[in-house]
Amino acid sequence: MGTIKGALVEAKKxxxxxxxxxxxxxxxxxxxxxxxxxxxxxxxxxxxxxxIYEVKSVNPAYSPRGELEFLECDVTQLFDxxxxx
Length: 85
Hints:
The chain is mainly β.
């Protein structure tokens, strides 16, 4: 797990499959983060100030000059530091 600098920008519903193979709506979130020294790939677990997430997909965003500006990651939150147990 790596720590990233990121901001949670959007929550949305997506069609997914539950553990029994049924189609269900799942809550997904978009985490926008700065490029880091380590690569981020689908399946990775990342930590930011807003929680711990599993990365579902990574979409790089480039400047007009072709430089990598930020990564937009579709994530599922695994741990919320503000949640009470």
